[in-house]
Amino acid sequence: MNAQLNIDLHTHSTCSDGALSPSELVAHAAAAGVRVLALTDHDSTDGLEEALSAAAALRIQLVPGVELSASWRAQDIHVLGLWMDPGNPALRSMLSCQARLRRERMESICLRLCKARLPGDALLAAVEAQRGLPTRSHLADAMVAAGLAARKDEAFRKYLAKGKAGHVSIEWPALPDTIGAILGAGGVAVLAHPGRYRLSAGARRRLLEDFAHAGGTALEIVSGANGAQHVEACTALALRYGLAGSVGSDFHSLEFAWNPLGRYLKLPDSITPVWRGQLP
Fold first, then answer.
1. Are 248 and 40 in contact (CB under 8 A)?
2. How confident is the model at residue 142 (pLDDT cuts 50, 70, 90)?
3. What is the C-alpha to C-alpha distance for residues 247 and 118, in angstroms, rounded to an integer?
4. Structural domains in the chain, sorted by start
5. Which of 82, 138, 167, 258 is the most exposed place for a label (fewest CB within 10 A)?
């Protein structure tokens, strides 16, 4: 295994669907021994300034990041942008469009819920009262608080999954355009949690081929609480398509004990780390 610092390149704050503010996230990461941390909120870089300030005080290297939503063959795909310039005009333009799409979807979902005789207006108000971009995770939390579901996963299954009353899809920017925005901002593009997409083995290989062809840099090989089998499968894909490797907890909340900040994430020796040449 590669000798490395305790690195976590995939985390979320209250600027998207995380439970901790950017400064709280950095503080918990520092307490857990993380030395290189990326804040990668969904389609937002609003938390980076606060996180950078907190990281400087705690002597953590903060990697500017974002998790962009993209479309590939009618499938929602997530791409991490790391070490990019958050002030890049083209990236800012894409983030503005992503924010508009998210707000329009949330309004459409809640309208559909109203038509299904559910309290869509109250749920929309609860979501809009939260910091950051509106996400379906926020809506699921509001549903639990309203007594419509016992847990977030139940809210998704009952109301937000495909075919349910609150399902509204988004046509995100095409995968090559998303990768191009990251590269144009001086960043590296990492395919997030590759095992999470509902794809056949052949489709997953085609995704990786298209991702690499469009300029994708790396594959998230160690992701969340995935085990050795996942790491082995992702390692084989990264080697096949000439991609570097990344590691990230995909941390959202301290409630999820199985997915903590500070879990020691290491890459196999055969994989080039995405941070090679990026860290001092």
1. yes
2. very high
3. 40
4. 7-94+174-248 (3.20.20.140), 102-160 (no CATH)
5. 258
Q: In this predicted structure, what is the pLDDT of residue 3?
A: 47
User: Which strands make up the sheet holding 36-39, listed edge to edge?
Assistant: 7-8, 36-39, 61-72, 75-82, 188-191, 218-223, 244-248
Strands 61-72, 75-82: pairing kind: antiparallel
Tell me the HSE value of 60 on the side-chain side, using a 13 A CA sphere: 30
Shortest CA distance to 259 belongs to which of 221, 216, 226, 215?
226
108: number of Cβ within 10 Å: 15
Burial label for 174, CB within 10 Å (0-12, 13-18, 19+), is middle
- Going by pLDDT thresholds of 50, 70 and 90, the confidence category of residue 87 is very high
**Residue 81 forms beta bridges with which residues?**
66, 189
How do residues 170-197 score in pLDDT, each as one tens digit? 999 999 999 999 999 999 999 999 988 9
Residue from 95, 86, 97, 78 nearest 216 by CA: 78
- Residues counted in the chain: 280
Give the amino acid at 278. Q
Q: Is the pLDDT of residue 264 over 80?
A: no
